[in-house]
Amino acid sequence: MPAFLPTRRAAVVSLLAAASLPALAADPALLNVSYDVARELYKQLNPAFVAAEKAKGHAVSVNQSHGGSSKQIGAVIGGLEADVVTMNQATDVDQLAVNGLTPTDWRSRFPNGAAPYSSTMLFLVRKGNPKGIKDWSDLARPGVQVIIPNPKVTGNGRYGYLAAWGSVIATGGSEAQARERVSKIFANVPVLDGGGRGATTTFTQRGIGDVLVTFEAEVELIENEFGQGQFEQVNPSISIETEAPVAIVDKVVAKKGTAALAKAYLDFHWTPEAQEIIARNNFRPRDPALLKKHAGRFADIKLFTVDKTLGGWAAVSKTHFADGGVFDQIMAGIKR
Fold first, then answer.
1. For 196, which of 156, 305, 312, 334 could close a Cys bridge (C-beta 3.0–4.6 Å)?
2. Residues of the chain with pLDDT > 70: what percent?
3. Backbone dihedral angles phi then psi of residue 77, each to the nearest 5 degrees
4. How far is Cα 282 from Cα 61, in angstroms, rounded to an integer?
5. 82-141: pLDDT as tens digits
6. How many CB atoms lie within 10 A of CB 112?
7. Which CATH architecture group holds 10-115+245-270?
8. Confidence of residue 24 (pLDDT cuts 50, 70, 90)
9. Tell me: the pLDDT tens digits for 161-170?
10. One fold for both 10-115+245-270 and 119-242+299-332?
11. Taking a C-beta distance cutoff of 8 angstroms, is the pair 226, 239 a contact?
């Protein structure tokens, strides 16, 4: 915890030293830059944190920014003064480290590799599942329109892409077979939206597509927003575990004097109260007891990870999503 500058009277310094957070401006505010699908989660988690801090005698507030994950990280790198980032994949946080905004060992600062929860990718189809979609191979069939956001600019899209690719690799298939499946799936994508929220809008409000590839946590939100009975959830036989990492933006908190408050906020994600909120929003909590308590919310399917099945984020990012990588090659070969 950073020390206070000796610019105040000793009596005031003595009082402040007893507090768990450093001396800040009145009602200090944090900015959490996050990804699209976490909107509803933080509408509940932030007030809980503010209330917990108020009980300790600290008046704080938390502001939110949401969008496609890679766009959000780009904004922070470009100067958006986020105290913390809460993303849906490690590669975006790694970009902060590359640009000197957070240390390269950011994963070691918090439990679970700094990911307080995870999710997975499922399918949402229209009522009655008219195209009979059951698994990843069905998304590659001719005549099936697939809605998935752009993997170049959003973690939602990257996870969907990698889930399709890994569905082949994790079941003993070859890289060539994985490339063939993913190529056919993206040939079936009529619109590449820039974020998960945009893809959801395309599918639900614009009425485009037969299947939406989305986070498990998004399915109930869509039903609540657009009405029960219009869509159906389909659980593929296998999918990817999507870990959601968090990090302090050191360069910003050093400038604003919010380092301890930012850490307190991210630490709060692992408290029983926050883990309960996470579970109620259909994200998979790290607390084993709460995961068991809410087991009915989560699809019982086989999961694989980027690290264990696909060689890790560094390799995946370079091979698939760098300019000229496999994704660009696939898109260049699709005839519209």
1. 156
2. 92
3. -60, -35
4. 25
5. 999 999 889 889 999 999 999 999 999 999 999 999 999 999 999 999 999 999 999 999
6. 15
7. 3-Layer(aba) Sandwich (3.40)
8. very low
9. 999 999 999 9
10. yes
11. no
What whole-number distance in Å separates Cα of residue 249 and Cα of residue 102?
5
CB 265 within 8 A of CB 62: yes
pTM of the model as a whole: 0.83
Structurally, at CATH architecture level, domain 119-242+299-332 sits in 3-Layer(aba) Sandwich (3.40)
Instruction: Convert 34-52 to b/e letters by CB count within 10 Å (16 or more is b).
Output: bbbbbebbbeebbeebbeb
Task: Report the DSSP pairing between strands 61-67 and 238-244.
Answer: unpaired
Please state, in angstroms and rounded to a whole number, the distance separating the CA atoms of residues 135 and 235: 7
Q: Is the model more confident about 68 or about 51? A: 51
Other beta carbons within 10 angstroms of residue 68's beta carbon come to 26
CA nearest 208: which of 228, 193, 225? 193
Query: What residue type is 274 in one-letter code?
Result: A
Q: Which residues, in sequence order, are CB contacts of 113 under 8 Å at separation 6+?
A: 90, 107, 243, 245
Query: Domain residue spans in the chain?
Result: 10-115+245-270, 119-242+299-332
Distance between CA atoms of 72 and 36, rounded to whole angstroms?
Answer: 10
Alpha-carbon span 307 to 178, nearest angstrom: 17
Residue type for position 42: Y
Q: How many CB atoms lie within 10 A of CB 263?
A: 18
Crossing angle between the packed helical segments 272-280 and 39-55, to the nearest 10 degrees? 160
Residues 43/241/191/321 CA torsion (nearest 10 deg): 110
Structure-block tokens of residue 154:
């959003």
